[in-house]
């Protein structure tokens, strides 16, 4: 159990998915022990001692680690993560308020309105294009899917990734957007209903790794 806990902790920092096959190779090796029980014990230890929840990504055999104690403010995050979190919050808010999916070029045009240009290194956010096209999708904060309905040019749809759905309650996103626009969350009918549905969804806890 201790080796598995250590492996999850060491690999959770990058926020990249953790492959079950890599765990088998690097932790269990040729051991044919009670892996199910070890996973369960490690999961409980990570949750109780370190405040980390291990979730299996739907449709795959990979895991992500998320904090069980939500961050109330980006100020509480490590310095090197604040700029990325701020940019991510802007992007997720825009996608949510636009109905859940936006075209890649539309997203970049939106960011440009605030002086955040994809082709220029931003003083605070850094390489925005790399974050949107590579880093956030790899971390599962964003989903980037090619639009196969358009043949003339390559376009991509951007939406929330699995990690964002786990880490960012839509209610909190909506409340912050409403506050910035000096409105009430209820003024945004569709988004408000979606946020309420999410709050009532017991399945939002993710998939167990005990199996």
TrEMBL record:
Composition bias, kind Acidic residues: at what positions? 195-205
Gene3D superfamilies reported for this sequence: MAGE homology domain, winged helix WH1 motif (1.10.10.1200), MAGE homology domain, winged helix WH2 motif (1.10.10.1210)
Q: Which PANTHER family match?
A: MELANOMA-ASSOCIATED ANTIGEN MAGE ANTIGEN (PTHR11736), NSE3 HOMOLOG, SMC5-SMC6 COMPLEX COMPONENT (PTHR11736:SF14)
InterPro entries named among the record's database cross-references: MAGE (IPR037445), MAGE_WH1 (IPR041898), MAGE_WH2 (IPR041899), MHD_dom (IPR002190)
Matching entries from SMART domains are given as: MAGE
Q: Which Pfam families match?
A: MAGE
Name all MAGE domain ranges: 1-195
Name this polypeptide is given? Putative mage family
Which cellular components does GO assign to this protein? nucleus
Q: Where is this region: Disordered?
A: 191-211
Superkingdom in the source lineage: Eukaryota
């Amino acid at each position: 159990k201790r080796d598995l806990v250590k492996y999850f902790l060491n690999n959770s920092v990058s926020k990249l998915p953790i492959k079950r096959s890599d765990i088998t190779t690097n932790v269990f090796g040729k051991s044919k022990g009670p892996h199910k029980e070890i996973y369960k014990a490690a999961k409980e230890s990570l949750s109780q001692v370190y405040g980390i929840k291990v979730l299996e990504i739907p449709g795959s055999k990979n895991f992500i680690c998320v904090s069980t104690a939500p961050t109330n403010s980006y100020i509480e995050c490590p310095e090197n993560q604040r700029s990325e979190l701020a940019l991510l919050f802007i992007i997720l808010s825009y996608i949510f308020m636009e109905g859940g999916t936006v075209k890649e070029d539309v997203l970049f045009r939106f960011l440009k309105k605030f002086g955040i240009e994809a082709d220029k290194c931003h003083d605070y956010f850094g390489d925005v294009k790399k974050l949107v096209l590579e880093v956030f999708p790899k971390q599962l904060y964003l989903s980037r899917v090619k639009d196969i309905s358009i043949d003339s040019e390559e376009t991509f749809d951007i939406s929330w990734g699995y990690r964002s759905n786990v880490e960012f309650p839509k209610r909190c996103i909506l409340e912050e957007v409403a506050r910035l626009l000096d409105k009430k969350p209820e003024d945004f009918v569709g988004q408000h209903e979606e946020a309420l549905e999410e709050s009532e969804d017991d399945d939002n806890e993710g998939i167990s790794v005990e199996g």
